[in-house]
Amino acid sequence: MDPQVMMTMFREMMREKRKEMMEMFFKHLAGSGQNNATSEVASVPNMMAALSNRIAKFVFDPDTDLCFTRWYARYKEVFVEDAKQLSESARMRLLCEKLDSNTFEKYQRHVLPKTFEESVETLKQLFVKASEFTTKYQCLKLEKSDSEEFLTYTGRVNKFCERAKIHELDSDGIKCLLWVFGLKSQREAEIRQRLIAVLDREYKEGRKVFLQELYRECENFLNLKKDSETIAGNVKTVEAAMKEERRKRERWNCCGDHFAQQCKSKPWFCKQCKKTGHKEMFCELANRRKTAGNG
């Protein structure tokens, strides 16, 4: 089959799937206590269509600051003022129809149908912009593609750096940024994530971080990790010692879990050495022969 035809069929299937999901979602919404649907008049579909044409679809992209809070701030007047004659369920439909497929599916997985205001707050929490330090960190990853014009690339770098407020970094901030950016190996992924989280927290609280502080944070994390691994190793050693102790306590005569002087069983006659007092598996003579044969 022609790949172009297959792609067209696939897109059509995805549209149908999303349409079915939306219908199921709003059927559930209609039955969850939204009793003001009867107040909708015949002009509601036309009003919703007109409002929908004024609202761009929301596509979440944290790297370019396209978060839900910023998108909603742009269209809040449309939802709150222009759509105030719509019922709660109609406004919910309008809001959800302006979410792209991935955003809607994630929203649907996290929440049950709620009021319009509750849904807005949930979406703000789910689709939040990248943190301040992470945005600065992403600036160092900017690359020019082969097909990109230099003018376009210049504008993209300028826009990204302005949004990240690179100009606010002092020499210590730049040092910390470069220090973390240099941790590129897979082996250092865990400590890199830890330090980015630390710097994010400090930036949010308005505290300045020095390079030596970052190094000490790194050392503390590595020491804690080492202590954790040591404790885990000690637990295994203790378990092995307890297992060995249980093995030593096995009664040579009956294999019971007690010492020799506590055994009340009749003395076992060993067929290996022709002596009484132990089973064949504990026979020293047989074990010496086995060892000599292996040598």
UniProtKB/TrEMBL annotation:
Domain DUF7083 span(s) in chain numbering: 47-127
Xref: InterPro entries: DUF7083
Q: What is this protein called?
A: DUF7083 domain-containing protein
Q: Which organism is it from?
A: Ancylostoma duodenale
Give the lineage.
Eukaryota, Metazoa, Ecdysozoa, Nematoda, Chromadorea
